[in-house]
């Protein structure tokens, strides 16, 4: 059986480009998570670009560490990190090997496996909230550090795979400051590197960075 056009795998060449080309082009693409209980598919509606050593907002700005090592690897691989001691977030590595750029997957619409996603996101008030935000998206797809380094372009069985989906028309993709990024990296005039599908209800609300207060 021939897969429909929107369910064809994205080739590695798609990710082997500058991150600012890849990020807006990911809006409307489909990410599939294969689980023992069945697949869950999310149509991406919001992403953020991070440009490694050229970007003070990037985890790779100060170089390679054990945490961000996947960002320096081949394009099309998944970089998963743990944040605030409770949440996972996932990214897709871009550019040639060694560039350490990646796209954070911020939000999407669950288009397959909704019942499975609901079981993982019991606090969601409705289906539009299942993957509305990067931690919610990772939770709905049951993505943790064990999937760090997964090849989303691999042939054969893989727990995460990117499909062509239906790219959003460029005039429907908006851009602005990244959410919760401190300092210059959060300056929307310098880094308007958050991209989203205009007026889509699954896009997360923008929040500026708020410094965390230390408990006395």
Automatic annotation (TrEMBL):
Signal peptide: none annotated. GO terms for biological process: base-excision repair. Its EC number is 3.2.2.-. Residues 157-186 are annotated as: Disordered. SUPFAM superfamilies: FMT C-terminal domain-like. GO terms for molecular function: alkylbase DNA N-glycosylase activity; DNA binding. The keyword Mitochondrion does not apply. Keywords: DNA damage, DNA repair, Hydrolase. The keyword ATP-binding does not apply. It comes from the Bacteria. NCBIfam families: 3mg, PRK00802.1-3. Belongs to the DNA glycosylase MPG family. This is Putative 3-methyladenine DNA glycosylase. It comes from Streptomyces cellostaticus. The lineage of its organism: Bacteria, Bacillati, Actinomycetota, Actinomycetes, Kitasatosporales.
